[in-house]
Description:
CATH topology of the largest domain in chain A: Isopropylmalate Dehydrogenase
Order of helices and strands of chain A: EHEHHEHHEHEEHEHHEEHHHEEHH
Largest interface: A-B, 56 and 56 residues
Number of strands of chain A: 11
Largest sheet of chain A: 11 strands, mixed
Radius of gyration of chain A: 21 Å
Number of domains of chain A: 2
Distance between the termini of chain A: 46 Å
Oligomer: homodimer
CATH superfamily of the largest domain in chain A: Isopropylmalate Dehydrogenase
Helix content of chain A: 40-55%
Low-confidence stretches of chain A: none
Shape of chain A: globular
Number of helices of chain A: 14
Strand order of the largest sheet of chain A: 3-2-1-4-11-10-5-6-9-7-8
CATH class of the largest domain in chain A: Alpha Beta
Mean pLDDT of chain A: 90
Amino acid sequence: MSxxxxxxxxxxxxxGDDAPKSVxxxxxxxxxxYANELQVLLVGDGTAIEQVRPARELARLGIEIVQSSxxxxxGESAATSYRRKQxxxxxxxxxxxxxxxxxxxxxxxxxxxxxxxxxxxxxRIKGVLRPAIASIVPTVHxxxxxxxVGAVADAKPANLYQFAxxxxxxxxxxxxxxxxxVGLLNIGEEREKGSDLYKQSFRLLEExxxxxxxxxxxxxxxxxxxxxDVVVCDGFxxxxxxxxxxxIIGVVNGTIRKELGQSLVFRFGALLMKPVFxxxxxxxxxxxxxxxxxxxxxxxxxxxxGSSSPLAIRNAIHMAAAMAQEGVVAKIGEELSRELLREEAxx
Amino acid sequence: MSxxxxxxxxxxxxxGDDAPKSVxxxxxxxxxxYANELQVLLVGDGTAIEQVRPARELARLGIEIVQSSxxxxxGESAATSYRRKQxxxxxxxxxxxxxxxxxxxxxxxxxxxxxxxxxxxxxRIKGVLRPAIASIVPTVHxxxxxxxVGAVADAKPANLYQFAxxxxxxxxxxxxxxxxxVGLLNIGEEREKGSDLYKQSFRLLEExxxxxxxxxxxxxxxxxxxxxDVVVCDGFxxxxxxxxxxxIIGVVNGTIRKELGQSLVFRFGALLMKPVFxxxxxxxxxxxxxxxxxxxxxxxxxxxxGSSSPLAIRNAIHMAAAMAQEGVVAKIGEELSRELLREEAxx
Lengths: 347, 347
């Protein structure tokens, strides 16, 4: 098996609310489960890492520890931490990528710090105006890609156009979706709906409707409906929507639990229905997805949730490996340079 | 009992996907249930209305029919329909209000047409820059007011400031919330988070933090959490979020139903848990709320969902009556003129 077929994932051991514990456990899980598919490099404080799992066990699983002496706190300013903490786990992980010692990065750390470090450390793919964070949202039929969910709060129409191109590439290559349907998130289906940003973005996407397989405007209610594969929006709207969506499973769970306390009959019913609830939870659970790919930077970066469980970390590692195997970065580069050539030819 | 204590609600009989049927049934329900609290005026095509319920029955319930010869379709342009259809049910309902023959309007019709007709027919409350549609969102502890959810897609900081003032008045007077907590929807808690619009709005709200009881930025996950009473946002973000939220009950229901088909044990469990599901559904169900008040126009207007059931119509009528009884319009006017005086004094 070639090295390429077993991508090396640089995992930020110090990022996340429960780091390094959940991260190390997730790494162990991934290394065991996907031994033939990937390799894990744990980047962080070796002493802290080895307190979670002994060095011998990690070595047996082929997990390499790459020492870094600093880490970026969840509340720290992204720009400041990047300038000052050149030996932070996320900065070291970035260097592993640029030096060709790793093929992808996974971090559950401070999202702003991860985005800044990736932008400055890896730089953008040629032609990309702004990178986007894409979120994989479970739908009634499968999943859809929602982007951007937080990298670009003040987006321009050209950004949204590129998000559509990058999202399409991701859905095609990683999800294996044939001719993914691309929709623009909006407040109505009609073309003249929405804010100025969305009206202009609609026109831009419509011009290249066939190439993008652009199906037009979609609304909030369509995101989970399963009839669209890539939903394009600005990072403000996407972030608000994603965080709202992530909170729902807790609300539903909490409401049901409270009711169960009222009666033994309810609890017996719930016991009988347990597999149903497990399936529902696993469908709506963002843990299963693992992480959000940062698309547009010149390297593979997967951002995991700050409160990632070991399962979420394992899945984020697997996602990063899939992106490396499918060569997503190169494919985004090809699509965008073709677009640039087209613009030069027509403009 | 004075006339004021029994507000007259002008109900747009021709608005809604299933009009006039659901609307008339909702009117009958409201007139029976709230006979001592309100009066219903059904505005629309008398013949069509009487096909749903005979004139005699409506008369017995004190429901008056006000004839209008036209109606605005769900897909029609708001501005065009207002100019051309002076005898549409929504235009006639507006005239009833301006002529003092009704105290509030309820419509499940084309939202754009209702907003335009209200803006042009009733005009804005003095000092109001743009009206907002407010949505009552059920939360884990009770409910919160989310505004704007679609009237102003391109909002300015001053709009968001006024939405906060109007939302506070509504929560205080109609919900009876003492010192409602006002939050700004954003993509992080820190003050420098978000798009330019939200950074500037934060500063504006912060200046008057004590008056507004402004608790700072809230995130998507906080909307259902019950720790904020009024959530302020632009109409684009609010509309996307609301439509997404409305779709969830269907997704959860659909997923559970599909699973139940797999096993008799699951179905028996579900039978035992039926009251739990009913409670969950009624908590998350937007029908129970009834409608969304349009705040900032010089009259009471409640916009019901296009697919409103009779129950939703009934609740929207009751909401409109409560707004009339509490004098919400006058109170918003007082707050905003106080604000204008303050600005003149300080500026």
